[in-house]
Amino acid sequence: MVEWTNGTTYSCVGVFLAGTGEVEVLKDAKGHKCIPSVVAFKDGRVLTGYEAVAQADHNPSNTLYDAKRFIGKKFSPEELNTERPRYPFKIQLDDEGMVYFVVGPPNNLTNVRPEEVGAHLLRTLRQTAIANLSSSVTKTVMSVPAEFVDMQKNFTKKAASLAGLEVLRVISEPTAAAMAYGLHKKQNVQSVMVVDLGGGTLDVSLLMVQGGMFFTQAMAGNNHLGGQDFNQRLMSFLRSVIEKESNRVLTDPEDLQALRLVSEEVKLKLTTDEQVEISVPLQSTKSTFKYSISREKFEEVNLDLFKKVLQPIEMALQEAEMSKNQIDEVVLVGGSTRVPKIRQLIGDYFGKEPNTAVDPELAVAFGVGIQAGILGGMWPLQVSAIELPTNARKIHVY
Ligand SMILES: Nc1ncnc2c1ncn2[C@@H]1O[C@H](COP(=O)(O)OP(=O)(O)OP(=O)(O)O)[C@@H](O)[C@H]1O
Ligand SMILES: [Mg+2]
Fold it and tell me: Which ranges form a coiled coil (predicted)?
């Protein structure tokens, strides 16, 4: 049995190892643990993951991504009109208000449903699993975002069945993350706050746990807060330094692009290093910009954004009518929770260390694997884990 995590940006496949009780996130032939959730149609062929990304620039209208945002969801024509400008591919609505994409050469257009995009990714991941395990792969456990309603879950299942997989269970991402930390079997844990801060979005879920049963009590989030915003702040700062030094406005698109790439790189380094040396050749000034930036400076230019992470946490607590000291465990998920200052702000807020031992990008995949192990009766201890249906609705911060 395999488990599948389908991200907006990346999808991963893992397997529960009955012998050790561990979960292994599987690597494909090229050594990638997760593949971009991108599917492209080219010369009658279907490309997935890195292969699809590699040709995206030359084939944007036939390279589909973000299908997860459309799967199993009804859109009004107005809602779709606000989405369309963000994508280089053609998006249409059927009579039922469901989305489909139109791809292919003009003389041979075909319609592709979001669940078919999911199925193509799943087939690739299934092949990875088959190659790793040298056995057939027919059953799976999947994770979906906390706010997915039944129809979105059902269409996600449909993606799996199109790929020839039987779905044993669908669990929510925060529940999976909590399970990655073994919180379904830990004594005296009744309430868990899961904070997922990725590249562009913040999602917070307050889970109640009892006897291995999870219940989502409240959800809140900010769809416009994440690592990209921190990069943007850093880039603006570096740009202002360059402009002051050179006494002119930096507008060269290639220089700006170089600065953008460096900002992401520098941000990642500042997670482990206190100080980072920057060196970027600029064509507009015909010189190399050199600068030494401290973690402190990075934190300073982002502090108001970092503090915004606490907003949906407070809203979720309010919604659940709970206080922060009633939270037994805090779980951090998503790449941006690696930023030391963010960990510190969250830790200080709750007055306790958040759980960070599991790789924040793989925690959901691990948790889904644990669920698969429990369902397969392979878990070494007698534990159960069940997710109860919830009526909680996500509260958005704008
Ligand atoms: N070591 C690090 N330090 C700081 N930020 C990091 C680090 N590693 C990854 N990130 C950031 O994490 C973000 C990606 O996280 P993740 O993979 O969880 O996002 P995602 O799930 O694709 O996005 P979203 O959940 O917003 O749709 C990127 O902005 C990346 O820069
Ligand atoms: Mg994410």
Answer: none
DSSP string, 122-149: HHHHHHHHHHHHTS---EEEEEE-TT--
Ligand 2: centre distance to CA 266 (Å): 21
Cα-to-centroid distance, 73 and ligand 2 (Å): 19
Position 124 scores a pLDDT of: 95
Q: Tell me what pLDDT residue 382 has.
A: 55
Domains with residue ranges and CATH for the chain = 2-164 (3.30.420.40), 172-225+309-397 (3.30.420.40), 227-305 (3.90.640.10)
Ligand nearest to the CA of 272: 1
Q: How far is the C-alpha of 356 from the C-alpha of 335, rounded, in Å?
A: 11
Sheet of 99-103: strand order equals 90-93, 99-103, 110-112
| pLDDT score of 104 | 94
> Reduced to 3 states, what is the DSSP secondary structure of residue 23?
strand
Q: Compute, in angstroms, the gap from residue 138 CA to the centroid of ligand 1.
A: 31
The pLDDT value given to residue 254 = 94
Helix axis angle, 295-308 relative to 310-319, nearest 10°? 30
Helix (H) or strand (E) run with residue 289 in it: strand 287-294
Residue written as tokens 């050469």? 105
Residues 356-388: b if buried by 16+ CB within 10 A, e if exposed: bebebbbbbbbbbbbbbbbbeeebeeeeebebe
The confidence score (pLDDT) of residue 237 equals 98
* Å from CA of 93 to ligand 1 middle: 31
* Ligand 1 pocket mutation pick from 68, 196, 265, 336 by most atoms within 8 angstroms of CB: 336
Lining ligand 1 with CB less than 6 A are 7-9, 198-201, 226-228, 264, 267-268, 271, 334-336, 338-339, 361
Cβ contact 178:192 at 8 Å: yes
pLDDT for 228 beyond 80 = yes
Distance CA 193, CA 212 (A): 16
Could you tell me the distance, in angstroms and rounded to a whole number, from the CA of residue 47 to the centre of ligand 1?
24
Which of 67, 70, 71 is closest to 155 using CA atoms?
A: 71
Q: What pLDDT, on a 0 to 100 scale, did the predictor assign at position 363?
A: 93
The ligand 1 atom nearest the CA atom of 267: 4
Nearest CA to ligand 1 atom 3: 268
